[in-house]
Design a protein that fits this description.
The structure is a single chain. This protein is mainly α. The protein folds into 2 domains: 31 residues; 232 residues, MetI-like (MetI-like fold), CATH 1.10.3720.10. It is globular. The mean pLDDT is 76.
């Protein structure tokens, strides 16, 4: 697990170095200090941002917005996917709606929701926008993961026990987690992009999108905008690792519980 994480971080770092090299070459060719400021100016802006408390407050506000929206989308997706798994007709009924939500451009969703809510509550616009995009993705991922479960496992547990919270935690979640993990990681990244877009368009104060909007309207060039981008890349790297860490500790917990059960059986 540790070796895999270190390998992924190394490859991620190589990718970043390639991007920095491409940017450096582009800045030399273009020779435009406003749109393509020097790497030294971007680094200086980056240092200024990471020693400023407002950066962390705005980042936490944005991540909190994403987390709230993701939790809401996840809860509804679990409910609807579970019902659709039991009653296939519901899946077919919801399919056109899910297809529409997944195909509509994000900017149209944001503007439609903003208009429908009469622009009175910008925070609600953010939650609804992120939810509208993430819900069909998470719903489909959970449904497909449920349908991919080996029926023999389900049949065994149906015979030996009723569907309880314990069975959901110990049986269903481990069986669907691996299939769902990549979708969860993608949803976090996509949720962050949408949240930033809404914060930028709606100028939701004290958020990362708000400050990026303000910097783009300034006269100091794009150095701070690119510095914010570096911060977001670092945050995304951390967020992408979290599901793997959760999966690792969950597997350790499962192994511990299995060994405990074996020991109990041996003692009996």
């Amino acid at each position: 697990m540790k070796n895999k994480i270190l390998k992924n971080i190394s490859l991620y770092a190589i990718g970043l170095l390639i991007l920095i090299l491409i940017y450096f070459i582009a800045s030399i060719i273009k020779n435009d200090s406003y749109f393509l400021p020097g790497i030294d100016l971007i680094f200086k802006s980056f240092i200024e941002l990471i020693i400023t408390s407002n950066t962390y407050i705005s980042l936490l506000m944005t991540l909190l917005n994403v987390l709230i929206s993701l939790i809401i989308a996840f809860i509804f997706a679990i409910i609807f996917a579970s019902i659709a798994y039991r009653f296939n007709k519901l899946y077919l009924i919801l399919k056109p709606l899910m297809s529409i939500l997944r195909s509509i451009p994000i900017i149209i969703i944001i503007n439609v929701i903003w208009y429908l809510l009469m622009m009175e509550n910008k925070q609600l616009v953010l939650y609804f926008s992120v939810f509208s995009v993430l819900f069909p993705i998470i719903y489909e991922a959970i449904y497909q993961a449920l349908t991919a479960i080996d029926k023999s496992y389900i049949d065994v547990y149906k015979i030996n026990s009723n569907l309880t919270f314990y069975i959901i935690i110990r049986v269903y979640i481990p069986l669907v987690f691996e299939s769902f993990k990549s979708s969860l990681i993608n949803s976090i990244g996509l949720g962050l992009k949408i949240a930033l877009s809404v914060e930028f368009i709606c100028s939701i104060k004290d958020t990362l999108g708000y400050y990026i909007n303000r910097e783009l309207k300034g006269y100091d060039g794009f150095s701070k905008t690119y510095a914010y981008l570096i911060i977001l890349i670092i945050v995304m790297l951390i967020l992408e690792i979290i599901p793997y860490i959760i999966g690792y500790f969950y597997k350790k917990y499962q192994k511990k519980m299995t060994l405990k059960k074996i020991e109990e059986l041996e003692l009996d």
